[in-house]
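Section 3.1: Structural characterization of target chains.
Under the original work plan, the team committed to producing a structural model for every single-chain target entering the pipeline before any wet-lab resources were allocated. The record below documents one such target. The sequence was received from the expression subgroup and is listed exactly as submitted; it comprises 267 residues.
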Amino acid sequence: MGAGGEGPGGADFKVWQGEAEGAGVKFATSLADLPEPSAPRLALISGRTADNPRLLTESIANGCSCIYLEKPGAPTVAELEAMATEAEAAGVEVLMGYNKNVCKYVRKTREFAETVPGSKVTFVSNNAYENTAESLGECFERNAEGMLKNMAIHELALLASFYDVNVDNIESVTADKEFSSMQTLPGPSGNDFTDFDKIKFTIKTKTGTEVSVQADRCGGTDSYAYVTDAEGNEIFRYYMPDEEDKAHVKVRITPIYFVIVFFSRCQ
């Protein structure tokens, strides 16, 4: 796991690693350590954004025929374009995720909001980091691209997909200063990193749409969305996962054998 193995959650991961290895799952510190693929190999890249171009190159070099790349994919558009060219030349399909567009809580919330004139939607994303300088400092360093390009990127994708939010159509961005919090904290390297530990803002578009995003590194394990009426009163809230999802997962848990290359941010 590298240095991240000694950080928050590292001990729990090692316990799970031992259980998974007992079931035949292979853990490696490099793609080069994996055996030659005997079947189509999928690389699931979920790592530091700055590392993604290198990880994509290594995935292609080590026999991956399909790559699932977590957005935003790379720090710059130029790097994304180079990655697309590299994958196309190698005949490797690249899919971008993870897509909350298809989540039930997003669909249910949007459907309800459409029935209430003048309503507004707020998408909430939570992580479960401890609210300590040590835990958040490790988080800030490991996700040095910042909260908006890291944690809240999924909600920004929802805004682009469903609420006409793009650079040319934004009329205003209003920060909730009472909720939002920015800190400068030392990471495991000893260097200081400045980022939001929580943020909330509302975007209003030139076409009249108004939508909000709230993200909290220490907010818990659940993501959800809620709807407020024209007076600002909350009238609907839907969580992910809901009780139906939890029951479905319980029924569907069976032994699964797969070949997936997963690049954790705990490197």
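Residues 254-259, 261-267 have pLDDT under 50 and may be disordered.
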